Amino acid sequence: QLGLVFDHRLGGDLSLMARVYGGTRNNLQYQSLGGAAANGQQSGTPTRNEWNQASNQDFFAQANWFLADRWTLTTGVRSSRVDFQSRDDLGAGNIADSVQYRATNPVLGITWHVTDSWNLYANQGKGFETPTLSEAAYSSTSSGKFNTTLKAARSMHREFGSKWTPSAKSQFSAAWFTIETNNDIVSIVNDGGRAVFDNATRTVRQGLELHGRHQWDEHWKSLGSLTSMRANYDQEFLPKLSDPVRSGNSMPGIPQQQAYISLQWSERGFSSPGRPAASGVEITLDWLARSALWVNDTNTESASGYGIFNSRIKHRFTPLDRITAEAYLGVDNLANRPYIGSVIVNQSIGQFYEPGMPRAWVIGLQTKVPL
């Protein structure tokens, strides 16, 4: 990958930024077709040999308008073009397919600065999401062929929220959001690692996000977040390879609640703007929880929720003049609790569940040497 960014300040509060980047990736994948020999496992006969390319161009502009002492208006627009090209090199003739996606999406937001430490805001904008090369890898009508029939998902986003910073040591925020999507890109079947995607008719996500942090004194601070969301099929959906999905069914793979709480202690006190991190020991204890979630579109199977603890211990020190070092020890899933860490949505033979990691230890050392 290689990229270049040009940033130039034209004067005052106006600046110009341009960027260009490119990259390439090669992926060689063998499907396990079976067979073994004394010198090792056979890869089997290749079933696909393709050259795939994705490219995109985006142009965007954004402006902030100070309407009055306590009102700010934000406007923006983005024009996007995404091109997919696929060439099948397995058979004779080098069959090629291509598809192009285009969209121009505006965004509008307004903020009321109620006080110097409290804001209320409202945002609305359109979204545009194309399939990825992985999502288009398999077709619902011709297994093993690149899928050029997938449409881009188009959505309308609305958000209303509040941000409050009563002091330099405390910050709280709350936001309510809704996302209405047409042609949402969803997995309709997963068979032997081959995930086929299709466009749902219409989906709706609505939720509430809460976040807060507070430093109790020089040595103790905590933060927490909570997300509560409902994601549903808002219209009946007729997938090409599975049974109809009724309107009102929950979208699989999305928990309705997620929570995170962290408690941190510092031996020498926490760093702050203008104050570098001090030497000494820091200990962090985290709790991460997720509610149950559906694993298929018909909502007949679900994965149970869980809550796990993680811990981190760091020690900063100065082994030599001007050289700083940090040794750390981390333990994930502190209680070694068995849980379902992820799911394979709409797995064809019911193998939906993937176990979460057991207790895992991480140890490391990093140093900073000034030039």
Q: Can you walk me through this structure?
A:
By secondary structure, the protein is mostly beta strands. The protein is 0% helix and 61% strand. It contains no helices and 23 strands. A 13-stranded antiparallel β-sheet has the order 5-6-7-8-9-10-13-14-15-16-19-20-23, with no helix packed on it. A two-stranded antiparallel sheet has the order 1-2. Strands 3-4 form a two-stranded antiparallel sheet. It is globular and about 70 Å long. The protein starts with a strand and ends with a strand.
Structural class: mainly beta
**How far apart are the termini?**
27 Å
- Choose one word for the global shape: globular
Q: Beta-strand percentage?
A: over 45%
Order of helices and strands: EEEEEEEEEEEEEEEEEEEEEEE
Question: Helical stretch count?
Answer: 0
Rg calc: 25 Å
* Uncertain regions spanning at least 5 consecutive residues: 31-39
Number of strands: 23
Q: Residue-averaged pLDDT, rounded? A: 87
Strand order, largest beta sheet: 5-6-7-8-9-10-13-14-15-16-19-20-23
Biggest sheet overview: 13 strands, antiparallel
Helix content: under 10%
Properties at a glance:
371 residues; mainly beta; 13-stranded antiparallel beta sheet; two-stranded antiparallel sheet; 23 strands; 61% strand; globular
Task: Outline the fold blueprint.
Blueprint: E1 2-11, E2 14-22, E3 36-37, E4 40-41, E5 50-68, E6 71-88, E7 95-115, E8 118-129, E9 153-167, E10 170-182, E11 185-191, E12 194-199, E13 202-215, E14 220-233, E15 257-266, E16 280-290, E17 293-294, E18 302-303, E19 306-320, E20 323-332, E21 340-343, E22 353-355, E23 360-368
Antiparallel strand pairs: 1-2, 3-4, 5-6, 6-7, 7-8, 8-9, 9-10, 10-13, 11-12, 13-14, 14-15, 15-16, 16-19, 17-18, 19-20, 20-23, 21-22
